[in-house]
Write a structure and sequence with these properties.
Layout: E1 4-9, E2 19-20, E3 26-27, E4 29-33, H1 62-74, E5 79-84
Parallel strand pairs: 4-5
Antiparallel strand pairs: 1-5, 2-3
Length: 87
């Protein structure tokens, strides 16, 4: 199995709020990891000390992902990356 990623670009509306990080920079990017079961074992997805995978019942459902994406798009996020592998 390989790592899967998908991206989408969104154009923020004129009345949208803006997310700002601790250094005053605007945030326009969000990464959502759909599952921790990627078999590439990159430190990016599986940090040191990783013990066990999340049970499938704890994974985000498609409707929940849609709600998260909509909420962040309303805050000015223009790019969404969906990551994770699967078994």
């Amino acid at each position: 199995m390989t790592c899967r990623a998908a991206s989408a670009d969104f154009s923020p509306g004129p009345s949208q709020a803006t997310l700002i990080d601790g250094h005053g920079r605007g945030i326009d990017y969000l990464r959502i990891s759909l599952t921790d079961r990627c078999d590439l074992r990159c430190s990016y997805c599986l940090p040191a000390g990783h013990q066990d995978f999340s049970p499938r019942r704890d994974w985000l459902q498609p409707e929940e992902v849609g709600q998260i994406v909509a909420a962040f798009a309303a805050l000015g996020v223009r790019r969404i990356r969906l990551t994770g592998g699967g078994r």
